[in-house]
Each structure stands twice: as C-alpha cells, then as structure tokens.
Amino acid sequence: MYTTKFSEIVQKYDVVLFDSYGVLKNYNGIIEGARETMASLEKRKVPYRVLTNDASSSPKMLSEKFEIGGLNIKTEHIVTSGMMAKSFLSTKSINGKVLYLGTENSSQYIIEANKEAISISDYDDSLIHEIGAVVFLDDEGYQWSTDINKAVNLLRKRTIPVIVANSDKLYPVAKNDVSIATGAIAQLVESILNRDFIHFGKPDVQMFAFAFDSLIKEHGELNKSKVLMVGDTLHTDILGGTKFGVDTLLVLSGNTSVKNAESMIQSTGVAPDYIAESIAH
Ligand SMILES: [Mg+2]
C-alpha cells in the first residue's frame, strides 16, 4: 500500500483536526513521535483541534492526561462527543433528572448542562417518574448485569429521550484485544427496545462544525479545502471528515492496521485522501 509522510502532507494545509485514540495516544500512552510533531505544529503556529468520541472525561481532564504523557494540548483545543451531548441537554427542555450510565466523572457533562444527574447504580423503580432523560456516557461506573436491566425496564415504561454520548462500539486495550464501549451497550438496549436513540460523535458532523466555528472565532475566515482531518478509524474519522467536506488522512497507528487497511477501504467504500503510518515524521 502506498503511504506517505505526515510532515509532507501537513504542509499543504492551514488547519489540522486530530482524532485522539490511535493517533496521539493508545493503550501504551503517547504514540511515538507525537510529542515532536505536535511541538513542531505549535512552533509553526498551525491551528489544530483534537476531536474525540469520548464522554468519559471532560476536556480539562483529557488535557491533564495528555500533559502527564508530555503532550501539551490546551483544554479549549479539545472537542469531545460529551460536549455535543451536553449542548443537546442544555438546549432541550427535559422534565426531570437525567439518568446516566457512566462514571461520576462523566456525569460532569450533565451537571454543566444545568441538569440534575443520577447514576443508574442509584436508581430504583420508585424513581421512575422523576427521570426525564437517559444518557449513555461510559462503559464503566455501573454493574452491567443489573444496571443495564434497570435501564431496559425503565425505557419499556417511559418514552423519554435517550442520548448516546459516544457511539463507538469498542476500543483497543492491547495490540490485538478490544473492550466493549458505550456505543455497543446502547446498541444492545436499542435492539431490545426496537428504538433508535440520539447519537453523538463522529462520523456525525456536529463535532467538526463545532471545531471549525471555534477556529474561525480564533483565526478568522477559514477555507475547508485547507483543513485536514487525521484519524485511525475509517467509519468515524475518515467518514466524518469526508461528510464535513475536508480532506482526510488515515494513520495506521491505531484501529486500522497496515495488513487490513486496503481491504477495509475496499469493503467500506470509505477512502481517505492520504495514508501515513503515523503522525511521526
Ligand atoms: Mg481513534
């Protein structure tokens, strides 16, 4: 397969959008060469944003995690799918508390939307009429065996909005192993109830639009043809970037391996404009 160098491609663009997991970091920490590449973009004052399907932590916490790994990414340069869910919750009128499946950290997105958050772990049937919406935020923070059943039973009885703040179905935890993510749990419940929930995150274009608007506010007029989206996943990063109308670069440092990239592009029909091994060099 023909791959090219990130450093050469990036020269053609004024702005870069990065996915996080599989591009800047992975289960091992910061990806080799990412520190140098990001430092060089900072030095050349190339504007960028990090777009991540993540509702488990706030941008501030994500920024702090990057910093521990030696990567300096400002809070305001991080756009999460949790932020999109938060903006939905804050503009929608919701009658009651927002029940969430996730960790206490993730419930920050509900609290910042000025809604009262209640964990599925603390929920029982006596509270059924107090709940105004349900949000899937994270795969951790609750007992799958009991708490997913509680959510199913609540939603069988109540027709209230259900938000999936991260639609990713899995995430890599080792070289060849994955773990079930929030999106897969939500999809299980959707299929049981035969209902479609409200999904946030790439490949939907909201996060791209949010990042683009914030870049315009900071840097003035921008041309989409001068924006490059860099990601490791075809059906989220590359499809999302393509739908938003920007050029895309697939890196092979995460979800898509050198071995299966070609066949995945063929079978999905999602084709990046460029392929590079990683953002190093
Ligand atoms: Mg990724």
Task: Give your account of this protein's structure.
The protein is of the alpha/beta class. It is built from ten helices and 15 strands. The strands form four sheets. The chain has a six-stranded parallel β-sheet, with helices on both faces. The protein has a five-stranded parallel β-sheet with strand order 7-6-8-9-12. Strands 2-3 form a two-stranded antiparallel ribbon. Helix 6 (144-157) crosses helix 7. The radius of gyration is 19 Å and the shape is globular. The model has no long low-confidence stretch (mean pLDDT 95). Magnesium ion (MG) is lined by residues 19, 21-23, 231-233, 254-255.
Under the CATH scheme, which class of the largest domain?
Alpha Beta
Query: Which blocks of ≥5 consecutive residues have pLDDT under 50?
Result: none
Beta fraction: 15-25%
CATH topology of the largest domain, by name, is: Rossmann fold
State the distance separating the first and last CA atoms: 18 Å
Largest sheet: 6 strands, parallel
Strand/helix succession:
HEEEHEHEHEHEEHEEEHEHEHEHE
Number of helices: 10
CATH superfamily of the largest domain: HAD superfamily/HAD-like
Can you tell me the overall shape? globular
Class inferred from helices and paired strands: alpha/beta
Average of pLDDT:
95
Bound small-molecule species: magnesium ion
Radius of gyration: 19 Å
Q: Spatial order of the strands in the main sheet?
A: 5-4-1-13-14-15
Number of domains: 2
Give the fraction of residues assigned to helices. Answer: 25-40%
What's the β-strand tally? 15
CATH architecture of the largest domain: 3-Layer(aba) Sandwich
